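As promised in the previous annual report, we have extended the structural survey to additional targets. Below is the entry for ABC-type sugar transport system, periplasmic component.
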Amino acid sequence: MKYGKKLLTMSLAVMMSMAFVLTGCGEEKPAESGSSTSTDTTSAPKKNVTLSIVMAKGWEKPAMHELFQKYTDKTGVQFDVQVLPDDKASEIIKTKFATNEFPDIMVNSASVLELNYMMPEQKLVDLTNEPWVDKLINKEDFMAEGKVWGLPLWGQDLWGFAVNTEVFQKYNIPIPTSKDELLKAFDTLKQNNIQPLYLGSKDPWMVGQMTSGSLWAAIQKDPELPKKLETNQAKYSEIPGFVSCLADLKSFNDKGYLGPNTMANTWDGQFAAFAEGKAGVGVGLTSWVNEIEKKYPGTADKIEFIPFYIGDNTTIFAGTSGQWYIPKTGKNVDIVKDFFNFAAEQDNLNAYYSNLQSISPFKDVKAQIPSAAQKLSDKINSGEYLTHRSHNSLVKGQDYDGLCKLGQEVIIGGKTPEAAAKEYDTMRAKIAKSIGLEGF
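The corresponding structure token record, generated without further manual editing, is:
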């Protein structure tokens, strides 16, 4: 292979103190902000150029390296892939944005609307007018303030409750189509000594994962709600569905639906519990199907996704696709743009997503994906299931980590749903004020 790979394991303190500048070694001048689409550079090999890429270890996939090799074979451009430990990646990436110590390409797990620290107008190249943007199924989903800042070269993960169809069939339980039916299923599972829902509550993010549907439902009733929340004219504690979602989490635990000790359950533990038939329902996402199949062959055929029937939510959570960003300070901006256009060529997209085995955010991609993911995608495309977006992508000024931890406290009875909702309003107010939102 003609690319390097490094594992960055140094501590945050070291990262902040060292002048570790990850840039390419070419002689291209940085592009101006919002520069026009670059011309095709693939006709002129750049054999002395190495593009540096930084990403979390968990984001690194064989499909990426195959794509890099194709571009190297065509242009001579090589790649230096530098991976961060998953448990430190978020903080290291924040530090890089704070210190402007960038590679040529920064892979991050969310959009600039969700991660305020990215400050796109100041630090990222505007990609709105790049040719591949029109290939996106819904480009508005990847816009912030009307602009596209990253290439969503990742799968479109869809989240919902993952039903263990083998367990449900064993106890003659129909696949739930509403919250009432889900609760009846939980009762039947509990009566048969099967843990109804494996939530993995020890990992805070699993608790918060299903809460954004309540915000989406409220916005459908009041389209002005995002603006009201961003200008301190409305509060989360005033959203009935949000409070009822937290109340359901507590109720699930109180009724024993989450097992004897949900706070000892983890994301990793869910794999075995689901595969071995010890849990009837889990919290799943479409790319998870591949992971569980590798660890427990034959399990993928037992999975069926349904909406997060909790609070007043009836929709599937469409997670933010990971995106590839170009820092303005990069020395190889035009070459990176050319690589992005190369990656978005139809044959390359088909090969990439077939390798990734994931739903693509790009149009007309022909790729093989697991049957459970395909079935869910078909239901969404037919309109049988609708989707919702995350808190962070709907309303500015969020503290998602704080929200997840509040959810944990509600589950174990440390806070009432109402008190937790009000505390989240206080958390949001501090963040909103710090980023200059009007009214805070």
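The two ends are 53 Å apart (CA to CA). The chain has 18 helices and 14 strands. These points will be discussed at the next consortium meeting with the crystallography subgroup.
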